[in-house]
Design a protein that fits this description.
With about 280 residues, this protein is α+β, with helices and mostly antiparallel strands. Helices cover about 40% and strands about 30% of the residues. It has a five-stranded mixed barrel with strand order 1-2-3-4-5.
């Protein structure tokens, strides 16, 4: 398609506004270009990406749908349309799109999820439901706004790798919450405990269907600071191993439950069977 120079100039001006972070004028100019050249695919793609970044799924869906109508072979547009379709619960269309990418089967093992908030980040475990949704398996920090077992939207393009037990696990970026879980987040300190006692508490939480996390070991804000590199995220597991028979002074743990009574029941039972102690129980 031959684009008149003045239309191209408007489009490039919109791109400059976008690069400067001026979304208002970028949106305005991209839409103005579309009125002048409604068969030009690039403004549809640009608007789709902008709304995708803002997690505004209805307009993102609209513009990517227009883009693939003009560019049927554009994989990025189809992929982003699939995410927007899932966000809007257009299941039939989403399944059709994922089949184009051969993604009928996803790994059944946990993968990494990166939450970004308040100028920091947190690496969690997630289990993929489909190429755009996953369930959180860890207990996120309260500042993140997420909870254990929340279903989130995510971008299935690795943003780095989590190094766990000398293995590289792909990490994906979240794109917002799709469905809230009923779980709440609680934390407490456990005192003078061995690794075996911590593992016993973890098993008891698992048996009671509660989430369990050792926040002392969280991979939060621990990234190699090189913006040019594909990042690798580490928890404290990269530190030299301590003597597991030696007790720790204290550990900060998190438990996810629907009610505080469930947390107290498990902690009190753990105290009896392990002779451990806890304090500073709080909910968020």
């Amino acid at each position: 398609m031959n684009i008149p120079p003045d239309y191209q100039q408007l489009f490039e001006e919109a791109q400059r506004y976008e690069q400067l972070g001026d979304s208002y004028h970028a949106f305005k100019l991209y839409k103005r270009v579309l009125k002048l050249a409604p068969e030009w695919s690039e403004p549809y793609l640009a608007l789709g990406r902008l709304y995708h970044q803002r997690r505004e799924w209805k307009p993102s869906f609209y513009y990517f749908k227009k883009a693939v109508a003009l560019l049927p072979g554009h994989r990025e547009a189809w992929w982003s349309l699939g995410i927007a379709a899932v966000a809007l619960k257009k299941w039939r269309l989403a399944r059709s799109i994922w089949s184009k990418f051969g993604l009928a089967q996803l790994p059944k093992t946990p993968e990494g999820l990166r939450l970004t908030y308040n100028g920091t980040f947190e690496i969690l475990w997630m289990l993929a439901i489909d190429p755009a949704r996953a369930q959180i398996l860890s207990v996120p920090h309260p500042d993140s706004g997420f909870h254990f077992r929340d279903v989130v939207l995510y971008e299935r393009k690795p943003v780095g790798h989590h190094i766990v037990a000398h293995k590289r696990v792909p990490v994906y970026a979240e794109l917002g919450c799709f469905k809230r879980s009923p779980y709440q987040t609680f934390s407490c300190l456990i005192h003078d405990v061995s690794a075996a006692q911590i593992q016993q508490l973890e098993r008891m939480c698992y048996d009671a269907r509660l989430g369990f996390e050792i926040w002392s070991n969280a991979a939060r804000g621990m990234v190699i600071d090189n913006p040019q590199a594909f990042p690798e995220y580490y928890g404290r597991s990269i530190l030299p191993p301590e003597n597991t028979a030696k007790n720790q002074d204290q550990a900060l743990i998190a438990i996810a439950a629907t009610h505080q009574a469930e947390v107290l029941h498990v902690l009190d039972a753990w105290q009896i069977v392990s002779l451990g102690e806890y304090s500073d129980l709080r909910g968020y």
